[in-house]
Amino acid sequence: MPPLDLLSTFLEIYRAGSLSAAAQRLGVTQPAVTGQLARLEEKLGEPLFVRTPKGATPTQRAAVLASRVGVHVDGLREALSPDDAEPPLKGTVRVGGAAEVMTLRVLPVLAELTARGVTVHVTHGLADDLLSQLADGRLDLVVSAVRPTRQGLLAEPLVDEEFVLVAPPALAHTVDAARLRAEPVAALAHLPLVAYAEELPVVRRYWRSEFGRRPPNPVALLVPDLRSVLAAVVAGAGVSVLPRYVAAPALAAGEVVQLHHPEVAPLNTLYLAVRRGAPAGPAVTVLRDRLQQAARRWSTL
Description:
Elements: H1 4-16, H2 19-26, H3 30-44, E1 49-52, E2 55-58, H4 60-80, E3 92-97, H5 99-114, E4 119-124, H6 127-135, E5 141-144, E6 153-167, H7 169-172, H8 177-182, H9 184-188, E7 193-195, H10 201-211, E8 219-222, H11 226-234, E9 240-243, H12 244-253, E10 257-258, E11 267-275, H13 282-298
């Protein structure tokens, strides 16, 4: 395993998007950062970044390494810090994400920053729109349900969402268990769907992943908020596919049941996205670290 200082420097380059920005954040010279990166690349036997006029573009090996060691290095740095007192912060952080994950998971972490003097502006929306705002400089950090492909953005895996097919008990009783195992699409075809959007993005993905085709079911209700989708399912409007963290309270209360139990849970990775090479202020850096720490407690959502 490479030394902690080399991995720490690597992460700063990965997150900052350039060697000069990483040196500034670390409080060292750029030649020192260059030397540590060279040592790490020598130990690994392959390059981690491609140098360009705009900064340092991570290779696929770098992306994998960052996802594997990021939270561990952050935890070690915090544990080894000689000063446990958290200094005050200032400034404004602009954060974007889907309304559901922001409300149920991210806002409690943001509250920690407001208590330290940071002003937080939250924007809800779809991943593509939020990533466009991030690239344009209108947001500082995005919790994204899709991996960014724009060249000017950097992303780290945050946590996996697990999806579950849920139904109100009355509708669940209309499904023949034996037929569900043998012919799931046909066994479920009579059930009305409650969906997030007309394209059935979450439901369609589940059907294709688990059953190999689009759902032929009638659509009963469209509502652009997964918490409202759950409320409609609880009320008996139909069945739907939801992240487990959204459905968990209703599942625990018996208001809905999990209709299908796949051998391997269908997952979707959420990412923390920032602009490559953007000067990350202390508040953005602290927020990123706090979200990574919180995600370890969340495990799979």
